[in-house]
Design a protein that fits this description.
By secondary structure, the protein is α/β, with parallel strands linked by helices. It has helices at about 30-40, 70-75, 85-90, 130-140, 145-150, 160-165, 165-175, 175-190, and strands spanning about 20, 45, 55-60, 80-85, 105-110. About 35% of the residues lie in helices and about 10% in strands. Strand 3, helix 2 (about 70-75) and strand 4 form a beta-alpha-beta unit. About 40% of the residues are buried.
């Protein structure tokens, strides 16, 4: 019989499932998504046939930010990120191969405003690489330890949580998407959605 001190917390007994769609636009040696796949920390999926139950899809064009209220959805379905070039994404305005079929594959959420610490985009607002994006999402749904483990071994990742500590803490203490948006306005002023 187990003592009450050894009972595991059922909320976090399993690691969140992480899924990736690889667009193949980044240089293979700089692609953090490929490294996550190689390390067995994420599973590769095709855009149109997302996993079930449906994950939260990290989409920079989604109207609502990921928030602590999304924790149950992440626990059930995981997180899906599209590993693609920021330069091409910003000119295209949508994900590569996004024909609308993925809109039913998961609930789309954007990340709140954060600063990148990866070598390609260091110090730039909202230009996170794939591992930073997934780690931020995990952090915001009360999976800080998983976020820290995910970042291990990536250049610049050791400072990601430190550089963004105030922002991540504020967003993680917001209850829902409206609260996260309010924190973005408080931290940065103005309207982050427009």
């Amino acid at each position: 019989m187990r003592s009450s001190g050894s009972t595991r917390n059922p909320r976090h007994s399993a690691r969140a499932r992480l899924y990736l769609v690889l667009a193949g636009e980044d240089h293979p040696k700089a692609c953090t998504g490929r490294r996550l796949l190689h390390r067995g920390l994420a599973q590769r999926v095709a855009r149109a046939d997302g996993p079930r139950p449906a994950p939260i899809v990290l989409d920079p064009y989604a109207p609502d930010p990921i928030a602590p209220s999304d924790a149950a959805r992440v626990r059930r379905g995981g997180l899906l990120a599209v590993d693609c070039s920021w330069n091409r994404l910003s000119t295209r305005g949508r994900f590569p191969g996004d024909d609308g079929a993925a809109s039913t594959a998961g609930l789309r959420r954007r990340l709140p405003l954060l600063v990148a610490t990866n070598p390609q985009h260091y110090g730039r607002m909202a230009q996170l690489n794939t591992v930073e994006a997934l780690a931020a999402a995990l952090y915001l749904v009360n999976r800080e330890a998983e976020a820290r483990r995910l970042l291990e071994g990536f250049v610049g990742a050791e400072s990601f949580l430190t550089v963004n500590a105030e922002r991540l803490s504020a967003y993680a203490h917001a209850r829902d998407a409206d609260g996260v948006r309010a924190e973005e306005r408080r931290l940065f002023g103005g309207d982050p959605d427009g």
